[in-house]
Structure formats: C-alpha cells, structure tokens
Amino acid sequence: MIVDSGDLLNEDEVIPATIEQSARMKAEHMMELQKVIGFDAVNVGEFDLALGIGYLKELAQKTEVPLISANIVDAGGAAIFPRYVIRNVAGKNVGIIGLIGDTGDIPNKVKEITNGEASVSDVVAAATSAVEELKGKVDYIIALTHQQANRDYVIARRVNGIDLVVGGHDKQRTESPIGVDDKSFIVRAGEKGQYLGMFEVDLGAGKSSVTHELVPLGDSIADDAKIKAMISAYNDKVFEMYSGGGETGVNPASNAVLQNEKCGTCHANHLAKWKATDHAKAYNTLFDKAKNYDPTCLACHTVRFEQPGGFNMKEQPMSLVHVQCESCHGDAKDHLASLKPVPTPRPTIDVCAKCHTSDRNPNLVKDAKIFMDKIKHQ
Ligand code: HEC
Ligand code: HEC
Ligand code: HEC
Ligand code: HEC
Q1: How far is the CA of 15 from the centre of ligand 4 (A)?
Q2: Residues 69, 98: contact at Cβ < 8 Å?
Q3: Nearest residue (CA) to ligand 1, atom 36
C-alpha cells in the first residue's frame, strides 16, 4: 500500500490571489499524480485546506484520491472527510485512519485557514472511536498522523489497536521504526517526497515481524515516463498561464536594470560583492530549468515575492528578479527616498531560513557563521 501523511498540495497557509489559479492547477496535478501512483490513503494536513474545503473535496471526488481525516470536523462536530478506509492486501484487511494534531498551533491554523468552517476535535477520542468501528473487520490498523512528532507516541500508547503510526508534519525521518510498548511502531519519511519509507510487516509471523528501509529518491532512481510526461504538461500550462505569450528560450531578465543599481550609487562595494554571489543569478537558474514563470519557484528566486513593492506575478517586474539587497534588508523605499534606516539593517540567520529551508540547508543554524561569511559584502 502507498500512503501519505498530508500537506502535499500547498507549501503555505496563505495563497496570494495572483497565484491562486496556478496553485489550484498545481493541486489538481498533484492529486492526479497521486491517483496514477496509486495512493491507498492520503491524510489531510492543514495546508491542504488553503484552497478551500469545498475545492479540496471536489478534487478528491474528481481524481478519486482517498483523502481521509477522522478529526477535521465541521461546526456540528461531524467529520468533513471519510474518517478511514479499508484496503485488502494479499488477503488481509487493513484499516487506515487519518488524524491531525489537536495541540500546539495546528487547531488554530485549521480554523484560520478555513475561516472557521473546520476545526480539530480530540485526536485520541477520534482515533479510539475509529478503531472501535474497525475492530473485527480488519487484521491491521494504520494511523496516518499530521502533528508534532512527540505526539505520535500518545497515539501509539493510548489508542489500543493501532499497529503502525505513519507520521508527518514535522519533516522528520526515522531510519528504523520506533517500537512502542511492544504493540506498535512509528515511522516517518521526511518531507517533499525526498524519501520513500518502505515498511514491511509479515502478518503470518506476527505483527512484530517487520523490516524497514528509507529509500532516497535521488537521481539513481529513473523517472517514470508517464509521471514525467504529466509534469511536463504541468510546466507547459504554467508557461502558458504566466509568460504573456513570451517565447520559450528567451530570458526576459537578460537586459534587466536591477533595483540594486540604485543602492550601488552609495554602496558601491556592497553591490560589487553581491554581484559575485549566487544570489545575483537566482532567476537565471530558474530560466535554465525553464521554470522562470512558475510562482512556486519564483517565491524564493526573486525579491520579496508578492509583498508590497516586491516581485509579483501580475507585472513580473524584471528589476526585482534574483535575490537582491531588499530580499534580506526589507523594503528600502523610505531609505531610498530620505535615508531612513532599512527595516533589517543586520539580517540574522532567520532571514536566510525563509528561503534556505531545512530540506535545502539542513545545517543552516548549526553552521550559521560559515554560511553568513559566504555572503559578506562590506
Ligand atoms: C543616497 C545614498 C544611499 C542610497 C541610494 C542607499 N543607501 Fe543605504 N545607506 C546610506 C547611508 C548614508 C547609510 C548610513 C551609513 C552607513 O551605515 O553606512 C546607509 C545604510 C544602509 C544600511 C546599513 C544600516 C545599518 O544600520 O548598518 C543598509 C543595509 C543599507 N543602507 C541598504 C541599502 C539598500 C538596500 C539600498 C538600495 C535599495 C540603499 N541602501 C541605498 C546611503 C544610501
Ligand atoms: C529570497 C530568498 C533567499 C534569501 C532570503 C536568502 N537566500 Fe541565499 N540563496 C537563495 C537562492 C534562490 C539561492 C540559489 C541561487 C542560484 O544558484 O541560482 C541561494 C544561494 C545561496 C548561497 C550559495 C549556495 C549555497 O548553499 O552555498 C549562499 C552561501 C547563500 N544563499 C547564503 C545566504 C545567506 C547567508 C542568507 C541570509 C543572510 C541568504 N542566503 C538569504 C535564496 C535566498
Ligand atoms: C523556499 C524557497 C525556494 C523555493 C520555493 C525554490 N527554491 Fe530553488 N533554491 C532555493 C535556495 C535557498 C537555493 C540554494 C540552496 C541550494 O542549493 O539548495 C536554491 C537552489 C536552486 C537550484 C540550484 C542552483 C545550483 O546551481 O546549485 C535550482 C536549480 C533551483 N533552486 C531551482 C528551483 C526550482 C525549479 C524551483 C521551483 C520548482 C525552486 N528552485 C523553488 C530556494 C528555493
Ligand atoms: C543574502 C542576504 C543579503 C543580501 C542579498 C544583501 N545583504 Fe546586506 N547584509 C546582510 C547581512 C546578513 C548583513 C549583516 C552582516 C554582519 O552583521 O556582519 C548585512 C549588512 C549590510 C550593511 C551594513 C553592514 C556594513 O558594515 O556594511 C549594508 C550597508 C548592506 N548590508 C548593504 C547591502 C546592499 C547595498 C545590498 C545589495 C547590493 C545587500 N546588502 C545585499 C545580508 C544581505
């Protein structure tokens, strides 16, 4: 069986209006890919709700992807998605329950993202009642969870009958399954489909007879021809949607006069040093991959994407491509007009982390100094 713990569709809770159309298109393509890959169950994460509950349900119906959640509930307390599914594998019935965390900021996020349409109910109670219904009908029960990793122990310990917890949300990876009280296991496979967690259980030999492998989905694994074609089709549609009839193979930024040039009149050294960094070619990198019209890429390869005065999809100002001074120092319009201080005179590593996410730079915080030194520009 193939399962996912949620948050596959969107990377953020707020989707700017100007990219909503492409965000929907991406979500639709993701769900179609899930269908072709053959997912048996997909849990709903809070970001999955960002395009609207109605839209998400519509997509699930259209693509027939089994989205589940036992404790994302409506105003009357009723589950909005199917709470669980039952699958038959090699003659055994397996129940899969979808769960989202009821602690930390998740419940508030769910309310905010859905404008109060949905809330999160008690996760242990929801899991327990689903398990009660499944008992006698299935040979094995899996909980797909979307919560802080430490909360997975609570599910594994307190809900009798759950054999395996497949955790998500916290971006963590388990090299080997974590056994809990000799009755269940917890596994996690990181984020962004970078790893495939392969968990095998021999029910004939008892539920504790398991093997597990975390397979990195790197270049050594060949692309699937059908999936690759679907991704190309998506890229073509994005190009059509945002290129304004532009030609493929022409970099619209090649003659751009950058906003940075304005800073260079007084900060000539800073500008010269910046030009030698990779930040000064970030948009070209996307162009080389034919991805320079994809909002999901431009978000970190331009200046202050979709913020006031920043790069936006509607106008696509070429003066604001690449990672320029204002990407780190903030909107400098008042500084330019009257030399008021810039919003962030000495950016800290948190500013870098907005783009240098944990999947890209896992040691960012630990090696902050080394990393900062690489962009020194006094
Ligand atoms: C007309 C000249 C001028 C222009 C144009 C200019 N600056 Fe400045 N900038 C200054 C002066 C003067 C200071 C204050 C003295 C200093 O710290 O060097 C300063 C300070 C700064 C500082 C450091 C603040 C601190 O407290 O240490 C940053 C960052 C900065 N500018 C960024 C920019 C950016 C980004 C641009 C372009 C959007 C820009 N500047 C354009 C003159 C300018
Ligand atoms: C707006 C997003 C954004 C911000 C903010 C940002 N970067 Fe980057 N950074 C990028 C992108 C995109 C690249 C890749 C550019 C390319 O090769 O086309 C990059 C590349 C780099 C590289 C070279 C590649 C590497 O990993 O060694 C270094 C070093 C770097 N950034 C340091 C920093 C530091 C330090 C900060 C914070 C002070 C920072 N960046 C803030 C987007 C950002
Ligand atoms: C969350 C911010 C973010 C988003 C979104 C993003 N990138 Fe990047 N990208 C970075 C940063 C930071 C780097 C530099 C660190 C690294 O090399 O991993 C980078 C580096 C790259 C590089 C490698 C440059 C090199 O030569 O080493 C490529 C290629 C790239 N990005 C393409 C893309 C594409 C295509 C997309 C959209 C599908 C995308 N990026 C979306 C932040 C981002
Ligand atoms: C990748 C993020 C990033 C970019 C892009 C960037 N800066 Fe900075 N800047 C920093 C950081 C981080 C510091 C603080 C360095 C420190 O404290 O040693 C800094 C410090 C400064 C300072 C004050 C420190 C000093 O003594 O010089 C100025 C002025 C400045 N930057 C100007 C610029 C200008 C002008 C540009 C564009 C040409 C630019 N920066 C681009 C991250 C960035």
Answers
A1: 29
A2: yes
A3: 263
Residues with CB under 6 A from ligand 2: 278-279, 281-282, 285, 300-301, 323, 327-328, 347, 351-352, 354-356, 361, 371-372, 374-375
Assess whether the C-beta atom of 300 lies below 6 angstroms from ligand 3: yes
Give me ligand 4 centre to Cα 325, in Å: 7
For position 38, what pLDDT does the model report? 96
Give distance in angstroms: CA of 368 to centre of ligand 4.
Answer: 15
* CA gap 183, 354 in Å, rounded: 40
The number of angstroms, rounded, from the C-alpha of 244 to the middle of its chain's C-alpha atoms is 28
Alpha carbon 271 to chain centroid, angstroms: 34
Mark residue 125 as left, alpha or beta (left: phi above 0; alpha: psi -120 to 50; beta: remaining).
alpha
Pocket probe for ligand 1: among 339, 340, 376, the residue whose CB has the most ligand atoms within 8 Å is: 339
pLDDT at residue 346, as a whole number: 96
- Ligand 4 atom nearest the C-alpha of 347 is 12
pLDDT at position 332, please?
Answer: 96
**Distances in whole angstroms, Cα of residue 221 to Cα of each of 36, 194, 218:** 18, 12, 6
Report the alpha-carbon distance of residue 375 to residue 349 in Å, rounded.
Answer: 12
- pLDDT for residue 16: 84
Q: How many CB atoms lie within 10 A of CB 372?
A: 13
Tell me, what's the pLDDT at 192? 86
Decide whether any atom of ligand 1 lies within 6 Å of the 329 Cβ: yes
Contact (CB, 8 A) for 96 and 83: no
Position 358 scores a pLDDT of 87
CA–CA distance, 89 with 92 (Å, rounded to integer) = 5
Return the closest-CA partner of residue 99 out of 23, 241, 3.
3
**Which ligand does the CA of 288 lie closest to?**
3
Regions of the chain where pLDDT drops below 50? none
